[in-house]
Structure formats: structure tokens, C-alpha cells
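Ligand-bound model needed. 2-phosphoglycolic acid.
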Amino acid sequence: MKYVVGNWKSNQNLTESLVWLDGIAAIKPKFSSNTTTILCLPFTDIAPFNHKLSDINLPIITGAQNVSHLPPGKHTGEITANMLSELVSFCIVGHSERRRDFGETSKMVADKVQLLLENAITPIVCLDLPYLDEQIKELFSRDVDVSRCFFVYEPVSAIGTGSPIDPVSANHVANQIGFLIDNQAPILYGGSVSSDNVASFVDQSRIDGVLVGTDSLEPMLFAGIINSIA
Ligand code: PGA
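Prediction:
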């Protein structure tokens, strides 16, 4: 199975998200049975997007991009895993933008992973070399079942720059992650993935899919990525 995961980040308001869905429906990408397409949306888009998705019946699974590291309680403004459990099947955690802008640590990310798994949501754990070992050790120290997670190698130099790293190097790091988790979970690559380069990543032996930021925002570009894999 190959995975294409879109990450809209802090883009697309509710209206824009529904227009995007109309756009994808009109383009009719070649959704194939050996590719799973997941789209990680802003919290505010998820419920109406799901509603419309079930009306038009496209094989896209929705996810969130973040979750509180705290359980339900007196935490004004936090969106908990319990809240998300009625809305999504996946949730990105530990994206480097959250580490950089919101001070997220490997411990907080591990808290999030635990809460997501308790709520039957698959965590998509983002990793980069400076904290790759530390993050995985933190998960193991808490007996997290890594076979219920997805992992993504996202070199920060490649995010949003239009310059992906070379697929062989990405595969090398994917192998490193695979070794640490005993090859129990899918491993994706993220960083300037486009329809032109996606095949070169998913053709690598240890890369099971891609996490796509910029090129998930335009239906035509995202459809191009889905079609390239199919
Ligand atoms: P990009 O973003 O595709 O724009 O490089 C990837 C990501 O940060 O998830």
C-alpha cells in the first residue's frame, strides 16, 4: 500500500475547503486500490468537509494536523484527541513547524501519540535527523505500540522550498527509522513533493508514501500526485 497525505497547514477557510473538494471531484483523479489518500485539514474545516465528502463519495480519509497534549479538562482552547475521535482517523504530530513556532518537544509529541492511540486515531509522527532518535526513544520508553503509528521523514531544508532532498538519501533515513521501529509501520517522506518527483520517492524500497504541503492546496496539483502514483 502507498500513502499520499496532504497537509494544508494554516490554509483554506471553510468555504475554500469545500471549493477544493468540488475541484477534486471535477478533476476525478485516478484513485487506485493500492494507494490510500489522506488529507489533514484545519480543525475548523473538518466536520463540514467530512459531510460533503460522504455526499460526493470520494476515497479520501480526513486527518487533523495537531492535537492537544492534554486530556479533556480545564485547558481553554485546546482540541483533544477525544474531540477528534468523532471526526478523523489520522493526526499529524510533531511537525517541525510546531517544534519551531510552538516549542513542541519530543515528550509533548509522545503525550499526543499516546492520547491519539487511546482514541483510535493513527498518529503521523514527523521526524527530522536532529531529534529522530530522541523521539523514537521517547515513544519506546512509554511502551507506545509503534505498529499503530505512521512515521514521516521531513528534512527541514526541504519543507516548502521547492528543493526536495534526493530520494536515495531519503530512503537511507527511512531505513534508519525502519530499523529503530523494527519495520513495524509505514514510513513516508515529506518536503517539496510534487507530481514530477513523487514517483522517485515512492519507488524507493523503504518509502511507503509522501506527505505533501504546498502541492496539496491546489486540486490540480494534488490530483497530479495521486495520478503519478497510480
Ligand atoms: P511542502 O510541505 O510539501 O510544502 O514542502 C511538506 C510539509 O511540511 O508537510
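Strands lie at 2-7, 35-41, 60-64, 90-93, 122-127, 150-153, 187-190, 209-212.
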